[in-house]
Amino acid sequence: MCTNFKVPTAEDGSxxxxxxxxxPHFMSFSLCATPRDLPRVALGPAGVPTKTWTTRHGxxxxxxxxxxxxxxxxxxxxxLSAHLLYMVGGFFYAPAARGDGTDVSQLELASYLLSTxxxxxxxxxxxxxxxxxxxxxxxxxxxxxxxxxxxxxxxAAIEFRPDGVVVVDNPTxxxxxxxxxxxxxxxxxxxxxxxxxxxxxxxxxxxxxxxxRSLGVGSGLHGLPGDYTGASRFVRAIALTTLAxxxxxxxDAEMLTLHVxxxxxxxxxxxxxxxxxxxxxxxLTYADTIANLTDLRxxxxxxxxxxxxxxDLKETDFTGDKSRFRALAERGEFTxxxx
Length: 339
Description:
Elements lengths: L2 E4 L9 E9 L4 E6 L4 E3 L10 E3 L4 E6 L6 E6 L4 E6 L16 E3 L3 H8 L3 H9 L2 E3 L11 E6 L4 E7 L2 E6 L4 E2 L5 H7 L14 E3 L5 E3 L17 H14 L6 H13 L9 E3 L5 E13 L4 E6 L6 E4 L11 E4 L12
């Protein structure tokens, strides 16, 4: 699952991106910081040459625990964010590894782009120069994904189609899951007319008839889909980010992002799916993230902790010879006050 979006640009120019990380309840994530000027070798089949590079930008994000190559969500010191989201249902086609020194797996793509690119334009060039192959990561299947990227000016989706990997302009700055972005954009035409204002009353039937009106507020959003499918979440994210008031500054934009993320939260128990060894597990929101691309702040709120934690990339040490990890907060508490 997962939902990704930009909120309206703040009056002071601040650009903020939100993302919910919704995964089966058997995965583990850590906060990760990757230094600049760090030599890297892409993951690949044993004995097969893969892509080598040196990181240009410091990176902060959420990675599969212990694997700085597998960043699921993050941003860099240039103000670029990248978000790896699931893409099930036959909408992921990745080639095999070539072994010619250009191979970067789909699970390492976000990490690679964040460590080497500053803008969407640079992302396009980088994607064209590598072979993005499908790695199974030791699982009984190859995880199907797409990658959403944002800079301060633009947004794009990297999709794995039957005819190759494409970087698609995203005029909405919203992304969820299957199908491809062009389908979601077409589907939006079914939801014209949503409004922050109540729908007007009307008279029904003829003769004596009857006057009807809204019994409360919010009827302008009547008809928006309320389930958790990727198609429905895409429409809701569009409605919320379209109607939300323009934030004043970066702080207000971060708060707005958190409020929008709250509407996509998946609590334990409401979605079940197959897990390891024929088990049934919960799909849930492991974390919500907020990437302030202007002020270079990366914030997260974990599954079992109501506190929001922030990494200021301007103050982070991006020197060193390896990535650093920090476990996500667990079993946080509400703050007690005296009255």
